[in-house]
Amino acid sequence: MSEVARSPARAKRWTRLEYERLVDLGAFGPEERLELIGGQLVVREPQGRPHSTGIRLVAAALRAAFGPGWTIEAQLPVALDEESEPEPDIAVVAGGPRDYLSSHPSRPTLVVEIALTSLALDRGEKASLYARARIEDYWIVNLVDNILEVYRDPEANPDSPYGWHYGSTVTLSAGDHVRPLSVPNAEIRVADLLP
Amino acid sequence: MVVSSGRTKHWTRVEYERLIDLGAFRPGERLELVGGALLVSEPQGGPHFTAIGLVEDALRQVFGSGWTVRAQGPIALDEDSEPEPDLAVVQGSRRDHSRSHPSHPVLIVEVAESSLAFDRGEKGSLYARAGIADYWILNLPDRVLEVYRDPVAAPHAPYRYRYGATITLGPRDTASPLAAPTAAILVADLLP
Q1: Do A37 and B43 touch, CB atoms closer than 8 A?
Q2: Is this prediction's pTM over 0.95?
Q3: Which of A15, A100, B18, B34 has its CA 20 to 30 A from that of B187?
Q4: What architecture is the B43-190 domain classified under in CATH?
Q5: For A19-50, what is each residue's pLDDT tens digit?
Q6: What is the pLDDT of residues B133-184, one digit of tens each?
Q7: Which of helix, strand or coil describes residue B139?
Q8: Looking at domain A47-193, does it have CATH number 3.90.1570.10?
Q9: pLDDT by residue (tens digit) across A108-156?
Q10: Alpha helices, DSSP H only, in chain A?
């Protein structure tokens, strides 16, 4: 046969504006949790108690580390790029809660994902997407191995899902400390982030 | 850009039709709902569009009154699929489907140029699962008509069904629709 296996039927790619319009139109059910990732609507899988506990721990630690002038957001939309509106487990954004009344924040200074079942997605597509958006500081609280993975130095990389990856990866365990890039004087014990 | 590690949103046909009613799509945007996924149709070339017209003309001659030949119209195929096959022959008149799309065409024809693998694979399995008894692919690269019949369960097919019988007809062969068995359509008449 002459034809290649390439499937010509391509998945519809939503823009962020289309997606926000769908949300405004009430196109999704109240219990439906979605993220727009590179034009695709990705379902957020239900998460168990370790994941929820991880979110609370990270939020508390970052609130103490960052102090006033920053908002620690848990699972709220980030207007990341033209075709992406993820809802990271934690995003640290400059300013106060009312600063984002007219539009979602787009440039978090730190993004944290708590990964148990989502580890492959968080290391793969999400990391590449955040790197492309030049998120300078991206952490994965890896509940599978009980470690913290710190990703920095976004750079172009053609082999990555969105053409970008993080040039630097540091893996920290419970006895280590981590300092957020934008508050380098703050020191957080990795043990305090792990459930 | 396919997200491989995450599960993408699975749309039901009812949700999809609501999106259309809400005006969620751009004018002229051609989409199909296939097994819960929203797929963009490729722009059509001259041979593809010509072939659709030729098949439409031939089917209209064969299926007289009491049947409607629909070109690229939506089919309410199943709970999570609303494809727009290149041609579908349905019972009744056009106004019979003014309130809801037809769901059980007696014949579906896809004209395949670059979409051959998809039309044979995903679409074939989807139509087989829906019990479409007569499915034709007008294969433009090879200038043949592929006739698929006898949908059967097949655990490894994309939608767990496939067609048990496949016949490939050359330009000098004739095809008879299952629903119009006395008619004979010359395959050459369908090819651009």
Answers
A1: no
A2: no
A3: B34
A4: Alpha-Beta Complex (3.90)
A5: 999 999 988 988 888 999 999 999 988 889 99
A6: 999 999 999 999 999 999 999 999 999 999 999 999 999 999 999 999 999 9
A7: strand
A8: yes
A9: 999 999 999 899 999 999 999 999 999 999 999 999 999 999 999 999 9
A10: 16-25, 49-66, 119-121, 127-132
- B4, B7, B9, B33: best to mutate for the A interface, most A CBs within 10 A: B9
Question: Domain map of chain A by residue range?
Answer: 47-193
Q: Do B141 and A2 touch (CB under 8 A)?
A: yes
Count of residues making up chain B: 192
* Residues in a beta bridge with B108: B88, B135
What is the amino acid identity at position B30? R
Q: Which of residues 110-169 of A touch B (CB under 8 A)?
A: 118, 120-121, 124-125, 161-162
State the residue for tokens 């949103």: B9
Question: Which sequence spans correspond to the domains of chain B?
Answer: 43-190
A139 touches A150 (CB < 8 A): yes
| ipTM at complex level | 0.79
